[in-house]
Amino acid sequence: MGFKVTVTGGLALEDLPLFKGIPIHVFIAGRSIRDAASPVAAAREFKRSIAQLWG
């Protein structure tokens, strides 16, 4: 399409599979990570899920 797609705004871990098959350039999940009980664990979960879906 000539541009890179970024997904942002209220993104939760369970939303990631909705974008499978789409070449997403960037996910921005600020509040989901910031507000988590363990932000480090939440970031790792996002990273793991992205690797599984887009590996």
TrEMBL record:
InterPro entries associated with the record: Aldolase_TIM, RibuloseP-bd_barrel
From the Swiss-Prot or TrEMBL record, what is one GO molecular function term? 3-dehydro-L-gulonate-6-phosphate decarboxylase activity
Q: Which organism is it from?
A: Budvicia aquatica
In Swiss-Prot or TrEMBL terms, this protein is called 3-keto-L-gulonate-6-phosphate decarboxylase ulaD
- Mind listing the UniProt keywords for this protein, alphabetically? Lyase
Q: Source organism's superkingdom?
A: Bacteria
What EC number(s) does this enzyme carry? Answer: 4.1.1.85
